What does this fold into?
Amino acid sequence: MSGQKQIYQLVHETQIYLRKTADLLSDPEMRTLARCFADDLEAETSRPPTLSRMRSVDVRGLRYGPMLFDPDSSLCQAIFHAALNAFPYARWSEFYKETPWTESFLSRFATGECIGPTGRFLSDDLILGLFILGPDTYYPAHAHPAEEFYIVIAGEAEFQTGVASSFVAKQQGDVVLHQSNVSHAIRSAAQPMFAIYGWRGEIMAPSWYRDNMADESEPKKFPNLPSANPASQNPRSFGEA
Ligand SMILES: [Fe+2]
It folds into this structure.
């Protein structure tokens, strides 16, 4: 009942999906990033799994879970079923603490870490998880040293990548890639969104934001994190820096 089979099937299907996506990308940097994620995920499958003792806690955003799985989904692909099967085994949390910065999303948001420093299976090298953003929700602009991907599995949302960029609608099957320390935000409308996400590179370094992400003279701020999150061990995670 550890979920090992389900979680590692998700790793396998995600790396296949990212490799296929990479072949279709015209931007060489994004193509390389997608392939690096696929390589890291493939390497993870060759390591012996270490089951975490951590379990999910109360996560208000999980109430949107039943809205997200459409049996008539057009994405009847292996990755959709892998995400569905891994869902109960992810270590779900709200990730952040209640602060003014998280007010627009925290009660409508859930992250389910499958593999990572606080995941169902432990890794210090990468993070692979599931992500829910409820309807009419704004996950404000932030950035982090780790590189990141999202694969939209169900529902839809708009992603902004880069401070001067417009929000772009992403739907089932779409992949979004974020390079290191590039500002990004997500907002949803009537539909919630369910996605697979991953981090590689400096995964222990905390996320940061500015009130105005375009103003590089403004000191970075670091969201407060619960103590179960390893990034909270970093004193820079508290208050401003
Ligand atoms: Fe991010």
The beta strands are 91-93, 109-116, 121-122, 126-133, 138-142, 147-161, 168-171, 175-178, 184-187, 193-200.
